[in-house]
Specification:
The chain is of the alpha+beta class. It contains twelve helices and 21 strands. The strands form four sheets. Strands 1, 2, 7, 8, 9, 10, 19 and 20 form an eight-stranded mixed sheet that branches. Strands 4, 5, 12, 13, 14, 15, 16 and 17 form an eight-stranded mixed sheet that branches. Helix 1 packs parallel to helix 3, helix 1 runs parallel beside helix 8 and helix 8 runs antiparallel to helix 9. The radius of gyration is 21 Å and the shape is globular.
Length: 401
Amino acid sequence: MLDNKQNGFDYDVAVVGGGPAGSTAATLLAQYGHQVLLLESGRHPRFHIGESMLPFSEPVIQRLGIDWSAGNLSKSGAVFIDEATEQRMFFPLAINRKTYQIERGPFDQMLFENAGKHGVETHQDEKVLEVSCQPAGVDIVSDKGQYRCRYLIDATGRSALMGRKDKAIKRIENLGKFAVYTHFQNIQPGEEADELFSSGNIYVPVVDIGWIWIIPLAGRRLSVGLVVQKERPKDCDAEELLRRYLEASPILSRLLKGAEQFAPVRVEADFSYTNQSRYGARYACCGDAAGFLDPVFSSGVFLAFTSAARIADRAHLGLTDGREADPALHAEDDEKYLLGFNTMRLFVERFYQSNIVHNLFFEADRDPDLKAQIAQLLAGDLWVDDNKLQQSLLAGRRGVS
């Protein structure tokens, strides 16, 4: 390794953003022996939506050396439901690998603190104001200091620091428009509720305006949200819209009877996009800073973990070989990222545009191979050569980037 101080650098790598992607990239680079600075504009624990994890995140979790089972609910699979027709289909996900329904505040804090345990210098409540990636190094100005580093990793989530700086954010128009959600506690005992918490399954009821998530959390709590794909009715705001759909759902009417709402109703808009400038000379973007998808298949944290690990591994090689200024350093890995991202993107597009739930999911019991292929994608097993459904999705939409 270079002596940073003698060469005018404060750190090998600065990672901006202390969510799952940033904490993962920082930890893995520190494990390789690099000097890493992790800058987080907020403070942990902080609320974040996205509680349902995918099983194929497990290899990265193992590399990080954390126990994600502690205090979390084991997740068996996903149940897609049409309450109007009483159709439902269960896809087992935790066959080869385990996964969990987690509470993001404590989970993200654990990941951030784990980075510190591996030698990363972690700063909270420090907002990056300006970055400049030059041929000779990266200069960073925050509201608390200035730093010079050999490499920058943008893990700023949907703030997408580098993508917005380069005007490279491209909205994906045909997926969900916004989500409105809240949390409930003290879910009362009963056969349906007990089965939900025992299995840890995520329930996905499809509705005329989009879809609903029902995610069981430890302590008999539920995360419940509505993703709206069509235009919102003119006669109500987002909170009233959520209330209408919760009351109209027989399942939720039963589950929420006697329960208490313990979190405010929140709304998230400007959903899906891709960053057309995911890497360049001395920088790379991971997680939501590289792209964000409608959360129907729970791909957010999974793509954060896998993209961060891939970028950390390649950045390590670049730093070791003195090639970190090569603008094409991540070109090969970006193809793998796009394979995963576009598989999920096209899967979500089919969910909305071709009624995939009714035409494919609810018919899957008739074709065990098809059901296994769907479950494989829902579990995050995306980098394979033999999934015919994945091949069909990708063949139908060449040139997505």
